[in-house]
Amino acid sequence: MNAIPQNPPLADFPTTLSRWLLGVGLASLLLRLWIAVTFPVTGDEAFFYWWGVFPAWGYSDHPPMVGWLIALMRATVGDSLLSIRLPVVLLPLGLGAALWWALEPLDRVRAAWAVLFFWLTPLNWLNVLITTDTPLIFWSVLSVAALMRAERREQLDRAAYGLYALSGVFLGCAFLSKYFSVVLGLTYLVYFARYRRERWSGLALMVFCALPAPAINIAYNMSHGWSNIMFNLYNRNEGAQFEWRKPLMYVGMMAYLITPAVLWLALRHRRALLETARTQAPIPRLLACLVVVPLLFFALLSFKKVIGLHWVLSFYPFGFALLAFALPLDKLKTCAKGMAWFAGLHVLVVAGLYMTHLDTWRNTKIYPQIVRSYKTAEILQKVTSPGTVLMADSYTAAVIYAYERRQYTPVFGVGKYHARQDDALVDFSLYQGKTIRVITPDVPNMGEFSPYFESVRQFSITQDGVPFYVVEGTGFKYQAYREGVLGEAYRLFYNIPSWLPMTGCPFCERYCGQLRCSR
Q1: pTM here?
Q2: Transmembrane residues, as ranges (predicted)?
Q3: SS3 10
Q4: Most CB within 10 Å of its CB: which of 70, 80, 209, 393?
């Protein structure tokens, strides 16, 4: 493709393609809605739910956008699982609309194929789980769409600058969703440096309009012990080292995400893909950058880190857009059919899973987790007692119990580097002298609990054949817990570099009464 294709008249828009779009869009939406109302809350969702209950300028692991989104859904739609999942259920429709808005001026037929390819991916049929990636993907795609519209303007007029500014605002919103938005910023830099140096002023305006987001995030981190930095750069990366399995897993994951049909056709028509990327038109060049730069970035990162499937999703739609503009016209329908078969296999698997019942999973390793998720109310009914404080020994269990109770459930013990929002929300000094019950899936080591209570006892309950153990401690000793547990948490997770300026640290202030605790 060496020239920008001309838009055909609306009358020439293929009827078959319109039917494909309508059928795929509606069928996938109905399936997502069904899964959303029948699948139990996951640990991540229950964790982020409490971000929506306690809206803030930031949270322990990530910037605040998903918490703001859940707070908005609770306030407008209601406090239900479908409410907090509704944004991700509708997300593919919104992303499809953004792709169409961005690409339609270039070629409306190929733009429609791009939307269809994206909608045919299995993730867009099955994903209903709200995560920090939901707003990241949304704002990232909107930012790219606005940039593409700006790049279509022949002159740097007021409309072009307005679109560049809008792209920057959306990029800032993506930054307030997750730090992977930095990869999108890097992609923009490569694109402008390589192809659009004459439009540096547009990039400068984008950066300026995005700056309020990092300013908000820096202010939050300064007042909260740099919790985002400690989690993302330090605590989660301790012990990371090279293993061959990591890049191999990345390659395998990308092959799956691309889907077999697309991978095969991309390899067969790689020359067309290269010609499209090398065209003088700005939009195909930008699409190529949006594919190549993130792929290389995550490939390099994979030598030390296991790349999560969700890490690449904010760039996922653009690969299908590039393919739609590169493949010969007679191969577009072939690609769609191959993708439809692949998505159909996933739908059949899901249908098969919904035909199973609880006993089907009894002999599997995940059966206890399934029981905990589907029988949460029954478990809590057997464990809860008036006058006792309920806790769990892990963050996943704690937030699932908390979501069912609609009452925050603390974690007893040091915990892990993930999900340390507990440190900001829970003041254990308030439990001095109280009776606490800690639910654990394993037989507890009573020596890990007895130092922090006047007396402890253990009992168990059974739910659908799965034992759950409860440690009941009476007379909680806060000072002992502060020294034995909170002190260890401080040592592991709050080794804040001295060169980072701080205006506050809720954990340190509660633990030692100072902005920075002495080592």
Answers
A1: 0.92
A2: 20-42, 84-103, 123-147, 200-220, 248-267, 282-301, 308-327, 339-356
A3: helix
A4: 70
